[in-house]
Specification:
Elements lengths: L3 E4 L6 H19 L8 E3 L12 H9 L2 E6 L1 H5 L1 H21 L6 E5 L8 H4 L21 H6 L4 H20 L43 E2 L5 E7 L37 H11 L3 E6 L3 H11 L2 E6 L7 H11 L7 E5 L5 H5 L1 H11 L1 H5 L6 E5 L2 H22 L4 E2 L13
Parallel strand pairs: 1-2, 1-3, 3-4, 6-7, 6-8, 8-9, 9-10
Antiparallel strand pairs: 5-11
Helix pairs in contact: 1-7, 8-14
């Protein structure tokens, strides 16, 4: 028996997630009098690439765990795999409630990083909250488990919280425990609908002021492809004296060779971004900024994602500046923009004001808008870039679902929510 399944959105906090998992496993073993080698929880640390099967261990853990701990955060509710995991366990909860008339206590949302909004599925379930710290009022909660882990002064509160969660997990294994999911109820993980990403129905327009019913509900397919559009000079272009770029080690023979975080990371940004896309089960194409308009048209037609990766120096080059400014002037920009700004690059520090001015002139609409998840003008390190790109890709996929084109009719509603099969 597994006491719990830990569901989380992969990103820059993985080391803290593993620490929380380890501490929680230890506390559950202590409460149950189990040996140190007994497996009591499940944490899937694999990155699933397009075309790969989900691990049998993940499938079995979802089908058998007595409780499901969701580390809720903005990235979590944007993650399709997390939504699938939630949906599978929630189906087990609902099936048990239909059979027994009692809702088991095993679905346990935890605040990892408090999200600003909740999908309806999650909004109806009460968070298991962290304890009130010393000197705090009851309404002055700490900012999630992540903050409890990161700050040493919160150590006592963190340990108390782990014990409280462990007690809740053990309780869920004893009070009206759910049986494992039967094999005949399992379907492929890939076929499961995310609990957080619902199809968007398209309806007929009004005629003579009368709004008719829907012509046919259609599904907005979740995008499986992302275009990374590179706006960066080549090594030869960087030699232009008017640009003022003396250090050219960041550039290569083409824009996709740009590696803005050298020397801390030698990997080209396009390669790193592609790896992150694969971690989110997305296919990736890398193109240069000269193809931006054609790329956006293709992406809008096929419900795909576009992310601009912009070297701040390129905004001072007339050809790049005009393409990017034309994009920014669109009535409804549909691509994300990320501008790496390495803290280790002394020339960027020395020319910071000039580069800021150039960015403001190139992206005036984005700069004037309120804070926007899809416009990130100063991504300071490779670690921050990785964490930010995870969020940008999920937010972009959410936008595609909300505004994309209908591609095919929905099938007849299934008799029950699809679940996994081994």
């Amino acid at each position: 028996m597994l006491y719990f399944f830990l569901s989380y959105a992969r990103g820059g906090d993985d080391v803290y997630v593993r620490q929380f998992f380890s501490d929680l496993c230890h506390e559950v073993r202590v409460l149950e009098g189990l040996g140190r080698d007994v497996e009591v929880g499940f944490l899937d640390a694999r990155n699933i690439h397009p075309g790969q099967a989900w691990s049998e261990s993940l499938i079995d853990a979802l089908a058998q765990s007595r409780s499901f701990l969701a580390l809720c955060s903005p990235a979590y509710f944007l993650s399709e795999p997390c939504g699938k995991e939630w949906a599978i366990f929630e189906e087990r909860v609902e099936e048990h409630e239909r059979r027994t008339g009692q809702r088991p206590p095993g679905l346990i949302p935890l605040q990892w990083l408090p999200p600003r909004t909740l999908p309806p599925t999650a909004a109806r379930i009460q968070y298991f909250e962290e304890p009130v710290g010393a000197g705090q009022q009851a309404d002055q909660r700490l900012r999630g488990i992540r903050q409890l882990l990161r700050l040493q002064r919160n150590r006592d509160d963190y340990l108390e919280f782990v014990t409280l969660v462990a007690e809740r997990v053990v309780e869920a294994s004893l009070v009206d425990p759910m049986p494992p999911m039967q094999n005949e109820r399992r379907q492929r993980f890939e076929a499961v609908a995310s609990a957080f990403h619902k199809p968007v129905p398209v309806h007929a327009g009004a005629v003579n002021g009368v709004q008719p019913g829907p012509i046919a509900d259609v599904e907005m397919p979740i995008s499986r492809k992302v275009y990374f559009v590179m706006s960066a000079p080549t090594r030869v272009e960087a030699e232009d004296e008017e640009l003022g770029r003396r250090d050219r080690r960041f550039y290569g023979d083409s824009a996709p060779d740009w590696a803005p975080y050298r020397p801390s990371s030698e990997e080209a940004l396009a390669s790193y971004a592609t790896r992150i896309a694969h971690e989110r089960s997305l296919l990736a194409d890398v193109i240069e900024v000269g193809e931006l308009e054609q790329c956006i048209a293709r992406a809008e037609r096929d419900n795909q994602i576009v992310v601009l990766l912009v070297d701040p120096w390129s905004t001072q080059m007339p050809r790049y500046h005009e393409i990017l400014k034309d994009y920014d002037g669109r009535d409804e920009p549909s691509a994300a923009v990320m501008i790496p700004w390495s803290r280790d690059d002394s020339e960027i520090r020395d020319n910071a004001q000039r580069l800021h001015n150039s960015i403001n002139e190139t992206f005036p609409r984005n700069v004037r808008k309120p804070p926007n998840t899809l416009f990130r003008p100063a991504v300071m390190s490779t670690e921050i870039f990785g964490a930010d790109l995870h969020v940008v890709l999920e937010e972009s996929r959410n936008l595609v679902m909300a505004k994309g084109r209908a591609r095919r009719p929905l099938p007849d509603p299934p008799s029950s929510r699809p679940v996994i099969e081994s």
